[in-house]
Amino acid sequence: MKRVSTCVENVQFVDYLSTSQGLLEIIANKEGVSAVTFVQSPRLSPNANEIVCQAKAQLSQYFKRTRTEFSLPLAAEGTQFQKAVWQALLSIKYGETASYADIATALNNPKAVRAVGMANSKNPIAIIVPCHRVIGSNKTLTGYAGGLDKKQYLLNLEGAQGVLWE
Question: What residues does the Methylated-DNA-[protein]-cysteine S-methyltransferase DNA binding domain cover (predicted)?
Fold first, then answer.
């Protein structure tokens, strides 16, 4: 008789938050938030756990300008390098910006500017892991998965526009 192996799925929990910039999909597992993404419409049926509820509440506070730091467990999946970049992004304070070169230097790998850019673009946890705070070395807006209009909005919301447009 052939033995069938069983695989326990990593249960995902999801909910949505309507913001002035569109709909955010918030996904978590039992460990932490694994994704925050702008979506056009709900893709999954809401099935929130406590982590998703906390993330939704904190993101709502962020958009109301009553929260400048997030206190959530994070569970993004990626390579070791991507995770190192995402961890470095967490050090960019609310209302501040950094360049890809700044992040590469912070990782003690100043020649890894392009690799930092690629890792930044793969960040699955928008806003909470603040990839929107990364700008070009010439202080210009650079790519953002949610669109440059959303990136500019988020930087304006945080009061970082002076860094870019003064």
Answer: 80-160
